[in-house]
Design goal:
Blueprint (H helix, E strand, L loop, with lengths): L2 H13 L2 H8 L3 H15 L4 E2 L6 E2 L1 H28 L4 E7 L4 H15 L3 E7 L2 H9 L5 E5 L7 E15 L10 E2 L17 H10 L16 H10 L3 E5 L14 E4 L5 E9 L5 H16 L10
Parallel strand pairs: 3-4, 3-5, 7-9
Antiparallel strand pairs: 1-2, 5-10, 6-8, 6-9, 6-10
Length: 305
């Protein structure tokens, strides 16, 4: 029995598919299948029911998988404990990031983090909040960058910074003449949102109030804030965007950004971590790097996006 075999077994159990699992593990499907078959022969049991679609663990397979999770966690923690004793920041960090953070925050810190901590293998995946929670529960990722208040109790949230909300308004919309908008002035017929499953959508609905969003003009199943903004540009509509998106708006479109006259119009950006997670030095390094990169501009000028 090897660590590799246990990792492959967990990958298939999480993906429900040998092909997807092999892609996740960066190995050919025949190699992955052979390793799991060898493990089954060594244990003398069938661990996966291959007749089901998706593939599911057998009864004994489910028990082995739970023990495999514990074994892999202990195995990975050995390196982290040794690194901490040496005062090093090293190891692998599998990081999930929600789509309304990834394109704006990642460019701000990933290069700096890589230069400061070259011994950390940072693996980043863009995922929705619900996907992040499922991935943490199945030990596919270690931590995540997401909006605060969206995680269950089994995941701790470590605050990074506040991210204010702004309105992005088409010049064809009657509200475009204003520089500051009241939430009460925004109606559902003018507002376009991200697809369901994205926490920014839920936060905007909570901000505006459900009674004002009962009749959305049409359904857009997009997780891209950039797509939503381009639709606003081509229509007479508006949307709500986070502060971290502002630097990426072309100069000729900046006049479409309007402040919101409400003190609570913001979200908290946090690092979400499983409460049983042991790589404290890496998480601390990640938090400190992000805060430093966000709150300092070149020349040491304190924050702004």
């Amino acid at each position: 029995m090897t660590i590799i075999q246990l990792e492959y077994l967990l990958a298939v159990a999480n993906c429900g598919n040998f092909s997807k699992a092999s892609e996740l593990c960066f190995v050919t499907q025949p190699s992955l299948s052979m390793q799991i078959k060898n493990l089954e022969e060594e244990l003398g049991v069938i661990l996966l029911d291959r007749s089901k679609k998706p593939v599911v663990p057998t009864q004994v397979g489910a028990l082995v998988i739970e023990k495999a999770k514990e074994a892999l966690l202990a195995y990975n923690n050995v390196r982290e404990c040794v690194a901490e004793l040496k005062g090093n920041v090293a190891g692998k960090l599998r990081l999930g990031v929600i789509p309304t953070i990834a394109p704006y925050l990642l460019p701000r810190f990933v290069h700096t983090f890589g230069e400061k901590y070259p011994k950390v293998d940072l693996e980043i995946r863009e995922m929705t909040t619900s996907e992040i929670i499922r991935a943490m529960d199945s030990d596919e990722i270690d931590a995540a960058l997401l909006a605060g208040g969206t995680c269950p109790d089994r995941i701790s949230e470590q605050e990074l910074f506040d991210d204010r909300f702004y309105a992005y308004v088409s010049p064809e919309n009657p509200l475009s003449a204003r520089s500051n908008l009241r939430i009460e002035d925004i109606y559902s017929k003018d507002l376009i949102l991200l697809a369901e499953g994205h926490c920014l959508r839920d936060q905007v609905i909570e901000l505006c109030g459900n009674h004002r969003l009962s009749e959305l003009p049409y359904t857009l199943r997009s997780g891209s804030l950039e797509t939503v903004m381009r639709i606003v540009d081509a229509t007479a509509m508006l949307t709500i965007i986070p502060e971290m998106a502002l630097p990426y708006i072309p100069e000729n479109l900046r006049n479409r950004v309007k402040t919101l006259a409400k003190g609570a119009a913001s979200r908290k950006i946090v690092v979400g971590v499983r409460r049983t997670y042991a790589k404290e030095t890496i998480i601390t390094a990640l938090r400190e790097t992000i805060i430093e990169c966000v709150t300092k501009r070149p020349g040491g000028v304190a924050r702004g996006w």
